[in-house]
Amino acid sequence: AAGEWMSFLPVGGFQRDLPSDTDDDECGELVLPPPSDESFEAALKSLDLPLTSDRWQKEAEAEEKMRTRCAENSRAVRDRLIELNEHLSYANKVYLG
């Protein structure tokens, strides 16, 4: 394995040719008729609508719910700290801001 060639294909090639992926492009099954003018216009109009998804809506609702819950919890902690600090005199308080 010191400086020897690594063969990726067997010597002499494969026993058979690999099938081409473009040989059957002209097959009758792949020929589709063009859409009618009405369906084409309907497809164009549907592209103008905003893109929505049930998953996106659920994620947005969960995000909003989490945001409001965190805001309520932060407000409750802040109010509780204000209550606890009311008993302290201003001489014992330190401003760190």
Describe it for me?
- This protein is mainly alpha-helical.
- 43% of the residues lie in helices and 0% in strands.
- The protein has 2 helices and no strands.
- It has helices spanning 37-46, 54-85.
- The longest helix is centred in the last third of the chain and has 32 residues, at 54-85.
- The model has no long low-confidence stretch (mean pLDDT 83).
Summed up, what is this model?
This protein has 97 residues and is mainly α. It has helices spanning 37-46, 54-85.
Report on the biggest sheet.
Answer: none
Low-confidence runs of at least 5 consecutive residues: none
H and E string: HH
If helices are DSSP runs of H or I spanning 4 or more residues, what is the number of helices? 2
Which percent bin holds the helix content? 40-55%
Mean pLDDT: 83
Global shape: elongated
Total number of strands: 0
> How many angstroms does the end-to-end distance come to?
68 Å
Estimated share of beta-strand residues: under 5%
| Class based on secondary structure composition and strand pairing | mainly alpha
Radius of gyration: 35 Å
